[in-house]
Amino acid sequence: MSKLTPATPSPKSGRVARPSKASARQGWARWLPGLQTLRHYPAAWLRHDIAAGLVLTTMLVPVGIAYAVASGVPGIYGLYATMVPLLAYALFGPSRILVLGPDSSLAAVILAVVLPLSGGDPNRAIALAAAMAVVSGIVCIVAGVARLGFITELLSKPIRYGYMNGIALTVLISQLPKLFGFSIDSDAPLQSVEAIVGSVLDGRVNWTTFTVGAATLAVIYLLKGSKRVPGVLAAVVGATAVVGVLDLAADAGVSVLGSLPQGLPAFAIPWIGSTDIVPVLIGGTAIALVSFADTSVLSRVYAAKTRTHVDPNQEMVGLGVANLAAGLFQGFPISSSASRTPVAEAAGAKTQMSGVVGALTVALLLLVAPNLLKNLPISALAAVVIAAAVGMIEVTDLRRIYRIQRWEFWLAIACSAGVVVLGAIPGIGLAIAVAVIEFLWDGWRPHSAVLGRSDGIKGYHDIQRHPEARLIPGLVLFRWDAPLFFANAEWFHDQILDAVAASPTPVRWVVVVAGPVTSVDVTSADMLAELDDVLHEAGIRLCFAEMKGPVKDKLKRFGLFARLGEHFFFPTVGSAVSSYLKRHDVDWDNRD
After folding, report:
1. Which residues pair with 470 in a beta bridge?
2. pLDDT of residue 122
3. Cα distance between residue 162 and residue 408, in whole Å
4. Is-contact 212 380, C-beta < 8 A?
5. Looking at the predicted structure, is the pLDDT value of residue 18 above 50?
6. What is the b/e burial string over 81-97, where b = at least 16 CB atoms within 10 angstroms of the residue's CB?
């Protein structure tokens, strides 16, 4: 199947014209896909994008504010982090309808850095959050230019599930005090749970605040499947109206957002102290990994829907530029949105122009109606974030993993517990460490087998699975099912000698069936030389069969190809067996 190329709308027909890969990669077109789309933008699509942008705005405003508060910064910065990234991604992003902005999956990571370092100072909080966005943006841009878009694939699905479930629980816990109408001093998840329970038992709950938040949450879930009425919009508008009409802020102590500053975000370099550099670097890098992992998955889903190809490296650049722009214009780290992108799609969005319309509409709101949301209750914003956090929790697929491979299920649970117990930033480190250990474990002690011949079955097969298989006298056929590298070199050496020791007849040849071996490093090459010496002293010839060309090339560079003898590298197991039988007088029936 041929690979789909980046889609560009045809100005005459409105259909998608697919430029060649060569032309798409030339000049600025590769780095500025938004301009390429704009040059061929069909006028018929404009009304669809305008309508989708206006519908999208109804989600952008309440969600942006909610995630800002959840991230530990004032709500206005959530709108700044909504507008600027949408405009930047429209120019640099390769996905046609992907929507970027503040996201619940990043809130816990941002809060973990901002809360302990800001000391309650909102200006310091946004400087720290903006600095993380700059770091995240630079990391993504550098990785995209270096074509490292594959790195998010290094985390297995159970580890991703575990990490995201832990983040979801952390976000949910952080919003419960706002839902109940009190504040706590703790920022660690487990300590926060203890403080929340203590505050509830001490009677600190503002039941009016809780009722407003719980009602908002209920409306969101009741309208979750509605295509006509956006649940988040209806819930937030309703809560704001009730609080405003009944004056619950004054009469019942319900905390509200208050008036937003009038005007647009300004360019500002986020200056931080020297003591903040390390946590900001760690947090920004972690955000880059998480945001691109989310964005790459969502990008692939919608690329398939629109029948276009999205370059993951350009996607990383687009995400990086959007984060960099957010950080330099008083915003904070952003990612793709699994809740707002479907809204844009359902509203008929054709291109990133819908995001541009949404960004401009939010800007218009700040210029002409900054008091529109002054009665928006904080508990309603908490309800929005809680609903998003619950939606992040993966249960169904974890049940499937539990049924088919329980150790991977418990790996996911361990990652979740690590995030909840240690916090978001250490939890990311734990997830990465577990992924590395998982990879090394699989390669450290890989499967290997001694092969024999079973009557009626072509080829040579594992004697553990085929106990009836016959062994060729004096010949050990040993298959190694992994790359050879420093972590498993000694294990390979020992397994070969164990196979020789277990042979029922004196061994003359050892043939390593090397088809599964995809690589050899210097450590394992030196081990092969040592193994050859040990076997040679025992009068045993070391041979290889089915070795891949690139691996042979490495052995040639290491000097092993000449040392072992080119004629002892066989193209197939059958040719190795035939050569052995010709050289040695062995009573062997080579029938199928």
Report:
1. 453
2. 93
3. 10
4. yes
5. no
6. bbbbbbbbbbbbbbbbb
